[in-house]
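Let us work through a complete example step by step.
Step 1: write down the sequence.
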Amino acid sequence: MDYLAEPFRVKVVERVRRTTEEERARLIKDAGLNIFALPADSIYVDLLTDSGTSAMSDRQWAGLMVGDESYAGSRNFYKFQQTVRDLTGYQHIIPTHQGRMAEHLLFTIALTPGQHVPNNIHFDTTRAHVQHAGGKPVDLVCAEGLNPTIDKPFKGNMDLARLDAYLTEQGSNVPLVMVTVTNNSGGGQPVSMENIRGIREITHRHGVPMFFDACRFAENSWFIREREKGYSKKSVREIAQEMFSLGDGCTMSAKKDGLVNIGGFLALNNPEWSEKITNLLILLEGFPTYGGLAGRDLEAMSIGLEEVLEEDYLAFRIGQVRYLGEMLMAGGVPIVRPVGGHAVYIDAKSFLPHIPQSQFPGQSLVVELYRKHGIRAVEVGSLMFAEKDPKSGEVRYPALELVRLAIPRRVYTTMQMKYVGEAVLDLYSRRKELKGLRLTHEAPVLRHFTARLEHMEAATV
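Step 2: predict the structure and record it as tokens.
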């Protein structure tokens, strides 16, 4: 079979409204060509993100009904705490309303202005929180991780030689090293256990803590089992526990591999950081046993962190993403290879070579995919990551110019994935018609969320 059958059956359905091309053209123009500003009920297949968009299970919905909404000491917190401890081995478990708050708490406490934070590749909110705390995010992904066409099993790996040299050069100017699993900004590519062990050895030698951005830890663990020698007989849970044992802590948006619509946490072993973070949490999020969440949310998160490790679920999840990726590759569409765990990433540079990065080719493709076919994707390229040099004013463009088709967990069917594939193939057949874009408004931070754009007068050929 080319496609694994769903390991679940549908109990509740949500109506999806079909819009006309004329209606979508008006809506995207009114939104300033920014897909974040579109009303969700105007979208047929929403692949904007896999964050908070999962379908919860019957067990999770049932768990909501046993929510203990006590202000302090909720029984759901203690269950959640034990679930995370059993999974990660970390002692201090701090719930937050989502992953970016975990990042904010960590970098506010751990980072002194002027310090540097290495990562394989920072994602947008991680990068923004490092910068907000006065730090410098540094990307040290392996060379093949920046080449969409190379088909290697672990393109999310960090360049160990560069990391060692960087820590030697910077010394105490690095408060911690982050490892994003899987590497979202680089095409959802996994990090191998061998690489994680190498990072651990280097950071330990330099006396620097190592933290995971663990949003997609289960998918990364699945790839280790499937692709790395010596792990084929281990369970995904065992692999995840081994991975976490090599770190000093993690941030987690449970809206991904926690299979919930809201929730996250920060887990770590450092008691001094934990105390300072908890004090800040009380100011920003609430009491430490709820961290901005209702007791019912903590219960759903505990259940989701168990369900995500079920191997029939993961086989289907990874298989569904691969199905879409292979459909696009068969039609000649340039994508990041191999297909990642949570999304298919189109290489917009190769898809639209006539549009320079200064005219946002990825965003041009995103706009047209919605206008023509009612599908919402997201640009991960020059709109999201281009930066101006503070001294020269020169714009630095990212090495990768991608469009991410992020697939929500347990939400869409095989036929809907087939529709997405056919839509992308249609745009690829008339790609020369697409035009570049220019900015008319941008915010100083995370501009892609609120930017407004317009089409250039004509495509650059």
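Step 3: interpret the result. The longest strand covers residues 92-96.
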